[in-house]
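Question: Hello, beginner here. Any chance you could explain the protein record under this note? Any guidance would be welcome.
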Amino acid sequence: MAWGQGAKRSILGLLFRAQQQTARPYSSSAFQTHQLSTHVPQDGVFLRRFSSEVSSSEQMNLIKQLRQRTSAPIKDVKASLVACNWDIDAAQKDLRKRGVALAAKKSSRTAAEGLLAIAQDDKRAAVVELNCETDFVARNDVFQYLASSLAKMALSAQGPGELFMPFGPELLENMSINLDHPNLSGETTVQNAVTEVAAMVGENVKLRRGFMLSTTAHGVVSSYMHTCPQPGMGRIAGLVTLEAEDSITLLDAVKSVGSSIAMQIVATKPLFLSKELVSASALENEREILRTQAESSGKSQMAMDKMVEGRLRKYFEEVVLMEQKYVLNDNTNVKTVLNDLSKEVGSKVTIGNFIRMEVGEGIERTEAADGSEVAAGAM
C-alpha cells in the first residue's frame, strides 16, 4: 500500500507525542488523585494509611507508647491511632471512649477468673475478689493494682466491732478511690475505676464479693495466700482469727500458729469450726449415706452401728477444723496445737472465725462445643 508524504508526517507526529507522554514522570499528586478516584472510604482512613508523614518505624513506636499508656489490645491501639491520624494524645482519648462503650457491652459476659487481694494489720483483714474472663488479664499490672487498691479500701471502710462480715460490690461501688498508677490516675468512684480497667484490658471485669474479719484486743488475724503473683494476692485465701483471754507477750508464737492454721484452711477446706457447730442437716445427711454403705456389708446391726460411728469420726476429721490433723504434723490435730499454744503463752487461745475463699467458686461452668470450659453463670 502506498502512503503519501502528508499521511506519513501525521502518523510520525502521533507516535512522537505518544512516546513523550509515556516517558513523562507520573506525579505523586496525579497518583494520589488516581487512587482517590478509585476508592475513598467515608471515614478518610485511606488518606492516612498512605500518608508519608508518619514512617513505619514511627508508627510502631507510637503503637508501643500507647500500649504502655493504656494496656489496651494492640488491635484497638492501632485502630485509634489510624483514626486520629497518629496523634497519640487524641488516640488515647478515643481509645478510652471506645473502651468504655465496649466494656458496657461486655458486662453481661461471665467473669470466672481473676484474683483475691488482701489488706490487713494485726487486728483486721479484708479480702476482695476481682473477676475477669481469662487468667491472662489476671496477670495484668493494672488489674492487679486495682484489686490491691480495692482491698485497702475495704479495710479502711471496716467499722468497729465487725468481727466477721461478708459484703457485696454495692458496699464499695459508689465510694471515691484515688488511683496512683501510670495508666490510672486521679480520683473517681470504684464503679468507674472497674469500668475503666475493663476498657483497658478488653474483658468484663467485676468486683464480685469480699469479707472483713477482725479480732478482739488480745487476738491476732493471720492469713495465707496460695498461687501468689505478688504479696497480698492469690487464687485461694485462708484467714483466721486467734483470740486470747488475757493480754499476752508472746505474740510471735500466736502469729506463727495462726499462719500455719490459715495455710491448713486453704489446704483442707474445713466447713465447720467444731463438732458442736456441724449443722443438724449436714450430720443427718452424712449418717444416711454411712448407713446405706454399712447395710451393703451384710453384717449385724451392732457391727453396722459401729461402722457408722467410726466413719462419722472420719467425717469430722475431714470437715471440722478443730478435729483435722495438723498440716505441719499429722501426729496431732488442730485442737491439740491450740492447747499447747495456750500453755506456752499463759492464756487460753481459741479460734474466733475463719474464711476460705477461692476465685470463681460458686460460678457454674459448662463445656463448650469445642471441649473448652466456659463459665455459665455467676453469683
